[in-house]
Amino acid sequence: MEWMTDVATLSGLRLSRSPLKLEGIESIYFRGPSHVGERVSLRSSVNRTFSGNRFEVGVRVEGYTVGGETRHINSAFFTFQLEDQSITLPQLLLETPVEKERAANATARHYLWLDRMAIQFEERQVSLSSENAVS
What is the pTM of this model? Predict the structure, then answer.
């Protein structure tokens, strides 16, 4: 999991080119085990930028043996925020259907996070709607 955080941080630094802080890990999905002797591949992408200089980075871990099939081991979604609020994040260009789906799912996770913060700190009720439902 530390490697996943490192890879997510590197993707965030490449996007922002400025210091950032990890705000939270939105979710981690464990799909299967890794085995002794397997190679591990970590891939990350910035899924979405949000207001307040926040953005989400998704990380996927795959395991494989030499000459063998690649298996999905786990995935995680990290939310970062820039330390310098005067910097504006670049807008992401969503070109493929997969990129658009990742951005939509990131938006849904972000709305859920905002709702959790509202419940935790403002003590108000939040109702489930199509905006905060993850597909």
Answer: 0.80
Rg (CA), the chain: 16
Beta-carbon contacts of 31 under 8 Å, excluding residues fewer than 6 positions away, are 71, 72, 73, 74, 75
Query: What does the chain look like in DSSP terms, one character per residue?
Result: -HHHHHHHHHHHHHHHSS-EEEEEEEEEEE-S---TT-EEEEEEEEEEEETTTEEEEEEEEEEE-TTS--EEEEEEEEEEEES-TTS-PPPP---SHHHHHHHHHHHHHHHHHHHHHIIIII-------TTS---
Of 63, 61, 44, the closest CA to residue 102 belongs to: 44
21 token code pair: 């802080």
pLDDT above 80 (res 126): no
Residue scoring higher pLDDT (114 or 95): 95
Distance, in Å, from the CA atom of 68 to the CA atom of 64, rounded to the nearest integer, reads 6
What is the layout of strands, in order, in the sheet containing 54-64?
Answer: 20-30, 71-82, 54-64, 39-50
- What separation, in Å, do the N-terminal and C-terminal C-alpha atoms of the chain show? 25
